[in-house]
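Input/output pair, single chain:
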Amino acid sequence: MSISEQQKPIETGFSSKPEASEVVAGLDLSGKVALVTGGYSGIGVETVRALTAAGAKVFVPSRDVDRAVKSLEGIIPAEQIGFMDLADLPSVTRFGETFAENHSKLDLAILNAGVMACPLGRTEQGLEWQLGVNHVGHFTLLKTLIPSLRNANGARLITLSSIAHRMSPVRFDDMNYQHRDYDKWQAYGQAKSAQSLMAVQLDRREKNNGIRAFSVHPGGIFTPLQRHLGNAEMAEFGWTDSDGNPSEVAAKLFKTTTQGCATSLWAATASSLNDMGGVYCEDCNISELVPDDSTAFTGVRQWAVDSEIAERTWRETEALIAGL
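Output:
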């Protein structure tokens, strides 16, 4: 096991539920270029709103450009929204290469888009949907953006992981669900473990080139991410009551969308993270490493931050793409 010594909480000055506006208060991001996937729905919209308010020029790729333009009206101009479908790797490559040609530097990249606990499906290239969209699509985008991130001389990249990473490590024996029975939550957990590991390995590979990477669990939030879940299932998890209203537990622990994007914004901009990277964060702080059998609502499992597993995940993802 090889875990960064930085994987432990620090003093940040924030509570566990700050508003996005609190995190960016006093920041001047003028001249900074940012990219936010999924920036037209849920916490993504609030991420774009906060970065723009702080002065950054934010670009948003979308598989539904018309919807994105409407959602982001008054926040960013339509010309900063372009077509990209994470479930179709050639479209990801086209977007990334075009972006890199037109923007010599990229200061902040927040890989926020995702799908959760959906029925078994396949991407255009035959990848299991959650692995393909959440991880492989973003991995493909990242590879095209590395030159622009290097040119920023101090870039940060944020991947959106989840507490659900604890539902499954990356299963190298069958990442793509070709041979094992499909379980929507294990598939989501694997994808979110992979997202965390991608940040660990990117940081390890590129920190000497000025790129630092962090993974983030945004917290429990009611957003369109739950669209594949019925109320009975959410009630079983204790998120809602039988009538579909937030439960007492959810009311206490869950965050609003403006609170839910705060940790991404913090990881992308906090000066307290200068000279740091390759760690999993939550509640506007670096998470504590917890045992695999921990029942706490916070903390990260070792399999999502181990640098040796991260290196293998990078290699296996490249091999998976090469074999398509």
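The CA atoms of residues 117 and 188 lie 6 Å apart. The longest strand covers residues 211-217.
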